[in-house]
Amino acid sequence: MKKFLIAAHGNLALGIKSTLELFLGDALDFIYLTAYTDDAPNLEEALENFFSSIDEQTDQAVIFTDLYGGSVSQKIAMKAIGKTNVSVIAGMNLPLIMETASLALSGEDYDNDKIAKLITGARQELKQVELVAGTLKTDTAETEQEMTETVTLASSTPALTERPETNKHMTMRVDERLIHGQVAMVWSKALKLDGIVVANDEVVKNQMQENALRMAAPNGIKVIMRSLDDSITLLNDHRSATKNLLVLVRTVKDAVTIAAKVAYLDRINVGNVGKMVEGDKKKLAPTVLLTPSEEVALKTLTEICPETDFQMVPTDKKELAKDFVL
Question: Tell me, which GO biological process terms does this entry list (predicted)?
Fold first, then answer.
């Protein structure tokens, strides 16, 4: 079993708790420990309780702390010395915690090499945002471009006259925020993505919005932004079968447009939709709020793909959308 402890000065751990539960739900065993506040538990006792809960034969524990030389890290290190099934990472950030949790969700075990790679990846998430074009140092700008460059499938794969039989998959998700933290840090891992296709007519006409979405793209995953029509052409290309792809659309209506013309979708997921829309809406799920016209579109979508589902994050229960359609 995997166990996690987040321990920090003040109430930092509780702030991280709120954010992690939004992204990951409560599928993993996380303990959050505050320190040196009026209502904080006794640190020594809390640590003793955590370490005593770890089975040396069957459990692995990963502990995150705020400051490498801080007293919280010192106390934890003293209790963890000599334990081969415990890892302590100081100087945590949110991407590091989420990447580490993703390994547990995929059933992987931890070792020193994996922890080192996680730390290296987390450091790459620390980036300066370029607010004025051309003002960042060249190496920073080049790294940013390399990680999120727009590519066409034709640039890496020759044309195919038939659709190949592969174990790759194509998932379409309705998410009004398109690329954001849940997609970058959670869904990209769960789906083992090679690429993301943002299918939206407005984004391709708005360079500022496109740049903002590229900032949110996960490292090492190619991002393509196209209009709905161009996305349909791209996805029907037989070369799309050679990659694990996530197609992101903003509305259920857009999902219908693509689903009606793309025959190779393996899954259609409705995740986050309706919170940014004004007017009368019906709440079908915690993160699915639909206007009357979007409800009609959802009915059409379930007729095209009866297995269309509601699921905000991979750890949530999957619900069939057709069960919510009148």
Answer: phosphoenolpyruvate-dependent sugar phosphotransferase system
CATH number where 171 lies: 3.40.35.10
Query: Is 98 in the same domain as 184?
Result: no
Q: Where are the alpha helices (DSSP H) in 92-227?
A: 94-105, 112-124, 138-148, 181, 188-190, 207-216
CA nearest 5: which of 38, 28, 23?
28
In-domain check, residue 204: yes
Instruction: Tell me the residue range of the domain where 184 lies.
Output: 146-324
Mind telling me the catalytic residues?
Answer: 180
Tell me the average confidence (pLDDT) per consecutive run of 10 residues in the chain, 326 residues long: 96 94 85 93 94 94 95 94 95 91 86 92 83 64 44 52 79 95 86 94 91 83 94 91 94 97 94 89 93 95 96 91 89
Q: Do the Cβ atoms of 124 and 219 come closer than 8 Å?
A: yes
Q: How many domains does the chain have?
A: 2
Q: Quick one: 181 and 62 in the same domain?
A: no
